[in-house]
Write a structure and sequence with these properties.
The structure holds two protein chains of two kinds. Helices cover 15% and strands 27% of the residues of chain A. Chain A has two helices and four strands, in the order βαββαβ. In chain A, the strands form two sheets. A two-stranded antiparallel sheet of chain A has the order 1-4. Chain A is globular, with a radius of gyration of 11 Å. Chain B is α/β, with parallel strands linked by helices. Chain B has one domain: Rossmann fold. Chain B has eight helices and six strands; from the N terminus they run H-E-H-E-H-H-E-H-E-H-E-H-H-E. A six-stranded mixed sheet of chain B has the order 1-2-3-5-4-6, sandwiched between helices. In chain B, helix 3 packs across helix 4. The longest helix of chain B has 19 residues. Classes of the chains: A alpha+beta, B alpha/beta. The interface between A and B is medium-sized, with 30 and 30 residues. The structure holds thiamine diphosphate (TPP), iron/sulfur cluster (3 copies) and magnesium ion. The site of magnesium ion (MG) has 8 residues of chain B, from helix 3.
């Protein structure tokens, strides 16, 4: 599991920004791409992500999976 | 440190507002239920309020009358004592409209778990003042702020812990990863205590309602961590688990 990363289910994102504020590696940002709900979905920079799971913990919308 | 993490299967997309506190609380409950192997022996009853959105979770449960979920859950528990029951209610539902049902369930030492989501207003109906509203807080029914010389925000966990010998009572918050992890520990304690037949268990969770507070999700979380906690200290108030 050394290389586990945060995977994003962008369709679920509501662009609240809570994950961005809590990521210890500043690996999450808004993509500028809008999902069907009309929200600017987040993306994860896999080079920065350490798979810590904090984004999973704080996201109210179940966007993240770590694997 | 990295490991595989995936939200429980029963959780489906929901309709809470961006940054709403309800989503994380629902996930934590389902994580604990799944980890205990209880998913198919679990009933999640809901009060009336934004918690109605939890019908998105694929588990059994009743949408109870406003404020009456503790009473409905007590009755159901009598009929199915080996099933795990959570009654999930807002502050307006559990502490204002259903105050009597909530206190009676605790007084009777009913072997159920109450989770209340305290966002200091009647959220679903557009943000009216509740007994939980902070002094000075502006709501649609306290446009000049809740009077500062009136009743103080109601502290039901403290009241129940001090009066009714419950098995477990705590107040948590979804303001940070650390507090969310504590919330999970509390839910584990409450569910385990219920399954061991130890009596009434309750967790109040401070949660942001950015929509009705007129704050961004970020500012709403800050408000929970600062202003709300002046009236609602976090921690365990009763534990005989
Ligand atoms: C008997 C009755 N009175 C009033 C209402 C209107 N009502 C629906 S939801 C709600 C507020 C619920 O607030 P709370 O329990 O705090 O939940 P929140 O939406 O804030 O999470 C009210 C007053 C109703 N549905 N039924
Ligand atoms: S916390 Fe979840 S919903 Fe909010 S911006 Fe991040 S991924 Fe999107
Ligand atoms: S797993 Fe950790 S490092 Fe990776 S995006 Fe999520 S919070 Fe950031
Ligand atoms: S109104 Fe408030 S409590 Fe209801 S879904 Fe929106 S943010 Fe959540
Ligand atoms: Mg409320």
């Amino acid at each position: 599991m050394e290389n586990a990363k945060a995977r994003v289910k962008g369709e679920l994102c509501k662009s609240c920004g809570i994950c961005i504020n809590n990521c210890p590696k500043q690996a999450i940002s808004k993509s500028g791409q809008f999902n069907n709900g009309g929200y600017d979905m987040v993306v994860v920079d896999e080079d920065k992500c350490i798979g810590c799971g904090i984004c999973y913990t704080v996201c109210p919308d179940y966007v993240f999976e770590i694997n | 440190m990295a490991k595989n993490i995936k939200a429980p299967e029963a959780l489906k997309p929901h309709r809470f507002c961006p940054g709403c506190g309800h989503g994380v609380i629902a996930r934590v409950i389902m994580e604990v239920i799944e980890s205990r192997g209880l998913t198919n022996n679990f009933i999640l009853n809901r009060g009336v309020g934004c918690c109605c959105n939890l019908r998105s979770i694929e588990v059994d449960g009743l949408q109870c009358s406003h404020g009456r979920s503790c009473a409905s859950t007590r009755a159901m528990k009598l009929l199915a004592p080996d099933t795990c029951f959570v009654t999930y209610q807002g502050d307006g539902d559990a502490y204002v409209i259903g105050l009597q049902e909530t206190l009676n369930a605790a007084y009777a030492k009913s072997n159920i778990t109450l989770i209340t989501v305290n966002n200091s207003n009647f959220g679903m109906t557009g943000g009216q003042m509740a007994w939980t509203t902070l002094p000075g807080q502006i709501t649609t029914t306290s446009p000049y702020g809740r009077p500062v010389d009136g009743p103080l925000p109601i502290q039901i966990p403290e009241m129940i812990a001090n009066s009714f010998d419950p098995a477990f009572v705590a107040r948590a918050s979804v303001q940070s990863p650390a507090e969310i992890n504590k919330l999970k520990k509390y839910v584990e304690k409450a569910i385990d205590a219920q399954m061991a037949g130890k009596g009434f268990t309750m967790i109040e969770v401070l949660a942001p309602c950015p929509t009705n507070w007129g704050l961004t999700p970020e500012k709403a979380i800050e408000h929970v961590a600062t202003d709300m906690q002046k009236y609602y200290p976090l921690g365990v108030f009763a534990d005989r688990t």
